[in-house]
Structure formats: C-alpha cells, structure tokens
Amino acid sequence: MVVAQNNNTYEPKTQEIAKQLLAATKENRSFLAQMRDQMRWDDKMLAWAMSNPGLRVQLFRFIDCLPALRSKSEVARHLQEYLSDESVELPSALKGMLNFASADSMPGQVAATTVSTAVEALAHKYIAGENVQQVIKTIERLRKDKMAFTIDLLGEAVIAESEAQLYLKKYLELMQQLTEASQSWKTIPQIDEADGQPIPKVQVSVKLTAFYSQFDPLDDKGSEEKVSDRIRILLRRAQELGAAVHFDMEQYAYKDLTLAILKRVLLEEEFRSRTDIGVTIQGYLRDSEKDLKDLIEWAKLRGYPVTVRLVKGAYWDQETIKAAQRDWQQPVYNDKAATDANYEKLTQLLLENYQYIYTAIGSHNVRTQARAIAIAETLNVPKRCFEMQVLYGMGDKLAKALADKGYRVRVYCPYGELLPGMAYLIRRLLENTANSSFLRQNLEDRPIEELLAAPSPKNTVSDLAAKRAFPNVADTDYADKNKREKAQEAFRIVRGQLGKTYLPLVNGKYENTSESFDSVNPSNPKEIVGKIGLLSVEQAEQALKAAKAAFPQWRKKSAKERADILRKAGDLMEQRRAELCAWIVLEVGKPLPEADGEVSEAIDFCRYNANEIERLDKGYNYDLAGETNRYIYQPLGIALVISPWNFPFAIATGMTVAALVAGNCTLLKPAEVSSVIAAKLAEILVDAGMPPGVFQFVPGRGSIVGEYMVKHPDVNMIAFTGSQEVGCRIYANAAILQPGQKHLKRVIAEMGGKNAIIIDESADLDQAVAGVVHSAFGYSGQKCSACSRVIAVDSVYDTFVNRLVEVTRSLNVGNAEDPSTKVGPVVDSKARDRIREYIAKGKEEAKLALEMPSSEGGYFIGPVIFSEVSPTATIAQEEIFGPVLACIRAKDFPEALQIANGTNFALTGGLYSRTPSHIEQATAEFEVGNLYINRGITGAIVSRQPFGGFKLSGVGSKAGGPDYLLQFLEPRVVTENIQRQGFAPIEGAE
Questions:
Q1: Which pLDDT belongs to residue 156?
Q2: Which backbone phi and psi does 307 adopt, to 5 degrees?
Q3: Does residue 528 contact residue 499 with C-beta atoms inside 8 Å?
Q4: What is the DSSP letter of 7?
Q5: In which region does residue 278 sit, left (phi positive, over 0), alpha (psi from -120 to 50) or beta (all else)?
C-alpha cells in the first residue's frame, strides 16, 4: 500500500486539472445548433422541469405512466390530468398545447403525438438502444471516440423465477453477440490495452438480485446457493468468450449479502485468479468506507485484483423514504456535500491501494474526476489500475474531454425496451434536474470557484421521521447479520420451552383447571407448543367478581399511572422481541418478518394508547362568564376482550391495553389455537405492573365460557375480532338485557372482509403484481385485510393474470420457520378443510389458473388462483381466509369499482393506477374502511393507517386511531355556576 497522503496534498493539482476539464466541456456551439436545441421539445421539457418544481413532479409522473398508455386519446387525457394540477404553473407553450376540449379531438391527438415523441427522444438520450443491433451501433460510435463500454440490460424487478432464468439467458446471449461483433473491431490501445496487458473489449454489468426472484437477506444461505450457481454459469461463459463482468450494487438492503456472495465465489479456485471481474461501492452510503476497507483486505487475501466501480448511488430518494417509513437509521448521507466528501475519501483510499484493487471512477462531476486524476498522477498509478466512467447520455462532454487527454473512459450503456427502462429514465431525469446536480449547476453557469470548491458537508440528518406526530417502533432489519443470528438464537431458546402448561390468571393467581387444550405447531402438528388450561364457568364467575372488586381502585389511578404501565409493557415487548417472534412463528405458522411486524404493532399499541389517554384525560373546557363547563371521560367498568388467532399478539394487545388504560378491568379470552402467545402477553402485562383483578387471562371454550361472559350482567363492553358468524352472535347476545343488568353493553366487532384490488389500464404492472401477491398470499391469506379478489380492466387483464401466475408459482411454500418460506401453513385442520371446500367450489365456478402443491406433514395449502371469476360467484363473495385468489375481468374502471363494492363487506381495498381521475374517484367511492393506492393492502401501521371497516366488516372505530379509546370511555359534562351573590370574576375586566 502507498503511504496515505494528507487530504490537502492533492488540492492544487485537483483545481488545475478540473479547470482544464471544465474549459473543455464548455466549448462554444454554433448559433444554428443552439437554435435547433431550443426548438426540440425534449430539451424544452427538461428546461421547464428544472425551473418549476411543481411541473417537474407532475411531468415525471406523467412520463412514468406514458409507456402503459395504449392510444393517443389516453395519452392526451393523462397529459391534461397531470399538468392541469393546481400545483403546476405551466409555461405558455404547454398551456396552449393542453387547451383542448376533448382527448379525441385533433388538438388532443397533436398534443399526444408531440409529447410522446419528445419523451421517446429523451429516452434515447439515456438508453443506448432498444435491441442488440442498435447497441452495437452505439458501441462502435463510442469506440471511434476512443471510449470503452459496459452494457446493462434494463429491467428493474425480477419477481418470478422464469424471469430470473430469462435474465441469465439474455446475458449469455448478449455476451455471445457482443463478442462476435467485437471480432471486427480494431484494437484501440487507449482502451483495449494498458501497461502491456490486453483489456477485454466486451464488458457487461449485471444485477445480482436478478438471478433469483426470491432473493432475501433473511434467507441468506438459500439466496446465496441459488445466486452463486447462476453467477458461476455466467462467469464460466464470460471466460470462454473473453468478456469482462461487472456486478452492480442495488438497494441498501441487498448490499451486505451481495458483497458476501461475491467475495465467497471469487475466492473459489476456479475464479480466484480472474482480474476481469468488478464490484460496486456506493459513495452515498454511510458505511461505504468500512465496506471498502473490508474489500481491500479481502483483495489482499485473494492475491489478484478486482475492479471497484465507485459511484455516488442511484437510489437516494428511495433509501431516504424507506428508512423514514420503517423508522430505521438513514443509510445514506442526507447532504449532497457529505456524499461528495465521502466519495473523495474513498477515491483516495482506492488509488492508494492500486496494487490490490483496480479503480473505476463513475461520476459526471468535473471536480470528482479531476480529484481522481490528481491522486493517480501524484502516486504514479499504472494505467491498468484506474479508469473513468460515465453514464450514457449524461456526461458526454466530460467523457470526450477525458478521452482527448488520453484517459481510459468507459461508458455505462443501458439497453432495452422503453417500458422496463422507464424507472432508469426517471432516475436519470431526477439526477439531471436536481438543484444539487453538478450537471445542472454547470448548465446554469455558476462561478468556477463555486463549481470546483472542495465539498463542505453540513452533517445534516433527515427529519422526515421527526415530522410525524407518533414515532412508531422500528421493525427488525434482517439484512443485518447480527439480527438474523439473534432470531435464530431465539428459536433455539423457545424450542427448549415447548410443551409447557399455561394456566388461566384469575385475580393475580394462576388457577389449575380440569380441562386443557394442546396448542400445536401448524407446520408440524406433532409438535406441541404448549398445553392450555381451559377456564370453567365457575372460574369465569370468580374472575368477573375479582374484576368488579378491583374496578373502584383501578379507575382512581391517574391516567399517567395507567399510561406508564403500558409504556413499561411496550419496553418489555421490545426487549423480548426475538423470543415473541419465535412463539408467533411456531404457534400460528406466521413467517418471521410478519411475526416481527406484529410485535412492532403491539408495542405501538401500548405507546400510542398511553399517549392517547393522557390527551383525553385533559378533557375540554367550554367556559362562559359566570359558568364553567367541563367535558371529561370516565371508564365503563368491566371489558371482555375476545382476540383472534391470526394476529395473536398485536390485536390481543391492542384491544386489551386500550381497555386497561381507559380505566376498565379487563379479561382477555384468546382464540384457543393461539393461547400460548396470549399467555406471553399476560406475563408481560403482569411484569409491567398490572394489579390483580385488573387484568386477567381467561382462556376457555368460546361456545361455553366465552358465551357465559358475553351474557354476564356485570360485563360492560366486549371487544371482539374474528368471524362474521361469531361477531354477529356476540352482537345479538350483548343486546339482550340480563336480570340485574343496569347498562346497555357496548360492542366493538371487527369481522373480516372480501377485499379487492383494482388494476386499471394505467397501472404499473410490475408494482401491481408484486403488491397483489404479497397481499393475497402473505401469511397464507389469513389476514382480515388480505386481498381475495383482484379486478383488472379488460385491456390489461390477460397480461396481468399471466404474470401474476408466474410470480406466485415462484413463491416458496413450507415450514414457517424456514427463512425461505413465503407461504406457510394455515392455522389448523379445520381451516385447511374449509379452504379445500372453497377450492373445490371454485373449480366448479371458474377457471383454475394455478394450484400449487401442498407440502406434507403440516396444515399446508399452496396458493390457488382462479381466473374468469364471475363477480357473484361464491369464491368472489364469501370470506375464505386462505391462500385463494379470485381474478375478475371488468370492462373498464367504473365497472371495476362497481364490482369491488358489490359484497357485504367494507374493510380494505386497493387500487393500482396512474390516472389521477381514477384515484380521485376511488377515494370518494370505494366502499372500504382502509383504501390503499399503488401499494399492498395489508400491514396497517398504528397512527399512520388506523384500521377498521364498516358494512358487515364490523362495528366500532378504527384501531390505532384518535377515536379508538373513546369506545372504552363514557363521556360526562360537569357544569358549575361560579357566581356568588351576583358576583363572578370576569377575565380581562378590572
């Protein structure tokens, strides 16, 4: 390694080289060329986007949608809808073009043609060709200018195994075609040789995750096995052809596993001596310096260099938003200058280790490239050990200036059809028009000193998360190896506790019972998770008496005292998170990431309801002169909570802690098959400080003990989540006034849904397919919010269903504990048999599009998809609660909305659309309690998406929302006349 230099050592030379390069990129163009550019609509659109932030957002949204539009009328209509938004200040040229009365009119058609042509021209600026023949022409043009290339096959998301296999096949064919074409290329020493060594003329860039559709850091071993096999095939063929391969870096979640896989494969004897392979480091990541240092140490061990392509990073917006939404630490620098400073530090680190690592500087920033050259020349870095890289269409002038100075320049050339290339195009447009972009600042003729100044970071941190009223707890990030290992350790600990007995908790004591129930692992029913003591009617009566006796003292506790117990419970849940997740996986067969999300929801319920009771406890003052008016709340009395098995921890917690913090004494009767998890909740509430009699854990037979408590005259309210049949029976029984009962019982009942997702003609089908698959088959469709109907408009129906089937076919079905599993078991044999009956009915009513095989040994049912389902079919009307999806064809969007509303339920619904008027209409007319647009319909988060529906989906306000606690409280008004003998203080009077 070269002795590290002081950062300032390279600054004078950096400035000198940068000024030369900047001058070379600012060559004067002819008056005619400038006039021609001013007349081009694609250039006009970019200029407008840079000068108007509102137009920029709407214009890019329209461009994102454009490839899905199938006629000029659709293009004209969407253009008008997007750009007529109130946030957009239109340039006069655009305003005139959009002033047509009808999308079918001649002016509308002209507008559609003009803008479509302009967007296509924009795409061709950044995409090197739509097919191999066009790409080869581009390459040959680049080589005439003494520039090398690397080719990237466009297409962001590989979500089906057939697509992953096709991706590999396309790259094998691409390398073959490029190699054949290269036979006629003359050797250009500047780019094809260095220090007497030949450099491969052909290079391709690939994405690791595209080799396996189920690539998942949680399943690190399974993902590595699948991906490594395909990498080996690619590298062997590349060696036969004499082609180089570079591995791109994608989203942060995949980084660690991507690097780990590549390090292991490239240490194998077969590949260890290869020097024509590259990896990528993203400078905007906060941990990129550590990653690079690790990579250098690995390269020393390997003994042969690989190339490190250093880029700033292309997913900044996505990474920032994702981290804020998930309450994770920001993985990226939030200040552009901090990224630039880090990039320069990494550049120096790379070039000072040129004996072990080849460097590729990927940047369009003149200062950044100049900095690399200054370091390389100062250290006499051999030409083979570094090169400069730019994106096709982004840094053309800089690339030419570098090539003219004799440096090896490689142009990153994406190719492919416009539709899969749209995400790439949008990222390039965002980069070109961002205020912080060097390219934009250079175009704006900023002072040279400002353009070339050393980056001065502000060390800011994004405040996106801080802007929220309620800070949700973060889910576990299983991309972190330490957290994966902690999860596995929790399974080992919990397995050592299987088979224990859990007794009812009555008045602070665990009571023996005459009857018990074995709760089993649905992935392996021979495995007993725990033995549950079932309460008798006599013991239920004791529990109710204990609650009645404890109520006077509990209601007197201050709101803060009760809230603090909930906060303590939330903290205990966080401490026991990994263990609680393991119990959920083993008792109800829920895969680990979903179990983890459930624990987060339970913690949020504790903390949110603690905050809410303190808010409500302040009451409201409506005072007048001479009179005070206080609006206050008091608890109801005794609450009975009947919780479901499908969210055995989160929903049980949400209903129970809401009742408790409101000052009610509460009895928790869980579903029998999930009683062990409920027992763990009971342990936590007791440890947090819930007094005897205030909270009681009362497992028992629903038809006997449950019904007895529902009808009991001392019960003031029932909070229930479960089936419509049971919910309606509870509602009816609670309405009957029992002897000695002095109140009407309040019932909160969430009773499921027949949830639909609509796919319209403008939908992003990649996004829609992934969202529907997750919503329909996550936790085997056993969520009240799960998608059980998908309604696609006729123009996209066949394409959508075919892709849906292929993606679903790629899901791993099996034991919930297996990290590769996406679809686990259903909860018990009753559920399995009931679902099988619906599948048999579906085969009579509709066309079977997919029926995946079921694993042996557990209560498994593979995903089932029916197509051409009638909107009135049994499988389109009744809640199945399993991995069964009905696909319904609609003529157009209005009919799709009518079909979606055509059931007795109104819980959740979804819409995939990029048509503003459709989104507006669905918002107003889609009859659901929770409507999700352009995302999956499951996974409501406390405070962000309070959850609950209407019609026969239930009665009561939304859990996790500002009205929920009111249901557990009785409002009162106290009015006092404060006049004495005609005198009362009047505020403000002397």
A1: 55
A2: -85, 135
A3: yes
A4: G
A5: beta
pLDDT over 50 at 35, yes or no: no
Average model confidence (pLDDT) for the chain?
92
Token digits for 664? Answer: 């009610």
Angle (CA) 109 111 117, round 5°: 100
Catalytic residue of the set 65, 581, 665, 784: 784
Q: How confident is the model at residue 650 (pLDDT cuts 50, 70, 90)?
A: very high
* Cα gap 656→688, rounded to integer Å: 14
Q: What are phi and psi of 942, to 5 degrees?
A: -50, 135
How long is the chain? 990
d(CA 930, CA 923): 10
The amino acid at 598 = E
Rounded to whole angstroms, the Cα distance separating 638 from 197 reads 84
Residue with tokens 């309210």: 717
> CA-CA distance, 674 to 890, in Å (whole number)?
40
787 catalytic? Reply is no
Please name the residue ranges forming H helices in 30-187. 31-39, 41-51, 53-65, 72-83, 92-97, 106-126, 132-144, 161-182
Is 36 a residue whose pLDDT tops 60? no
- Is the per-residue pLDDT at 436 higher than 80? no
| Residue 357 CA neighbour count, 13 Å, CB half | 30
DSSP code, position 903:
S
User: What are the phi and psi torsion angles at 865 (to 5°)?
Assistant: -125, 130
User: What whole-number distance in Å separates Cα of residue 718 and Cα of residue 688?
Assistant: 24
Asked if pLDDT for residue 405 goes beyond 90, the answer is yes
Q: How far is CA 909 from the centre of its chain?
A: 18
- Per-residue three-class SS string for 300-350: HHHCCCEEEEEECCCCHHHHHHHHHHCCCCCCECCCHHHHHHHHHHHHHHH
Parallel, antiparallel or unpaired: strands 905-906 and 847-851 = unpaired
Query: Which residues have CB under 8 Å from 407's CB, separation 6+?
Result: 373, 387, 388
Query: d(Cα 261, Cα 254) in Å, to the nearest integer?
Result: 11
Q: Catalytic residue at 750?
A: yes
Which member of 750, 761, 817, 927 is catalytic?
750
955 phi, psi to nearest 5 deg: -135, 135
Paired with 695 in beta bridges are 666
3-state secondary structure (DSSP) of residue 519? strand
Candidates 936, 900, 597; CA nearest to 773 is: 936
Q: What spatial distance separates the first Cα and last Cα of the chain, rounded to whole Å?
A: 84
Identify the band that residue 448 occupies on the pLDDT scale cut at 50, 70 and 90: confident
Cβ(58)–Cβ(85) below 8 Å: yes
pLDDT tier, 779 (very low <50, low <70, confident <90, very high otherwise): very high
- By three-state DSSP, how is residue 628 classified? strand
H helix count then E strand count, the chain: 35, 33
Measured CA distances, 636 to 284, 563, 946 (Å):
54, 17, 23
In 3D space, the residue among 147, 123, 141, 268 whose CA is nearest the CA of residue 203 turns out to be 147
d(CA 465, CA 468): 6
Question: In one letter, which amino acid is 691?
Answer: P
